[in-house]
Design brief:
Jelly Rolls, 2 helices, 14 strands
Length: 179
């Protein structure tokens, strides 16, 4: 596994180190010791899957507030998406900055997202499936988000949003005291 730091402090893109032969390849997708070496949480307690049928569907920008804040490890198992995170950690050196990258079943990249980071994505193909690992259990009362098109962040999405939930589209404008 190769860890590449993103422009968001503490967030990483993970790439596979493949061992290939004429049958195909083998690669580790998870190794707790590699995470611990970098000071990253390696204690995942829940895994979830998301399936989105249509290209142009936006989900996000979600996060859980303390005491149920969570780190996430995300990987696309089918299709292509543009994944975005926003740093909402007030004391972070990258506070209010965003980072986006394409994740797909062909590039096989994963994304490690620290707690305090809002996360969302837009599908770039039909039938996208994503697998998540989280370090905290989902708690509805702690779940919240920020709007994907909030002018405070100026995210540049690669395509127009064709579909979004009413909840995700209706988050109020970001205020520092709202997170």
């Amino acid at each position: 596994m190769r860890f590449s730091a993103t422009s968001i402090h503490g967030a990483y893109v993970l790439d596979l180190e493949k061992r290939e032969d004429d049958r195909g390849f083998f690669a580790r997708t998870w190794d707790s010791s590699e995470f611990k070496k970098r000071g990253l949480s390696a204690k995942f307690v829940q895994a979830s899957m998301s399936s989105t049928s249509k290209s142009g569907t936006l989900r996000g920008m979600h996060f859980q507030k303390p005491p149920h804040a969570e780190n996430k490890l995300i990987r696309v198992t089918r299709g292509i998406m543009y994944d975005v995170m926003i740093d909402l950690r007030e004391h972070s050196q990258t506070y209010m900055q965003w980072f986006g990258t394409e994740l797909s079943d062909t590039n096989r990249l994963s994304l490690y997202i620290p707690e305090g980071i809002a996360h969302g994505f837009i599908t770039l193909s039909d039938n996208v499936e994503i697998h998540y690992f989280m370090t905290s259990y989902y708690k509805q009362e702690s779940q919240t988000g920020v709007r994907y098109d909030d002018p405070a962040f100026k995210i540049k999405w690669p395509i127009e949003v064709a579909k979004i939930s009413e909840k995700d589209a209706s988050y109020p404008d970001f205020r520092r005291d709202s997170v």
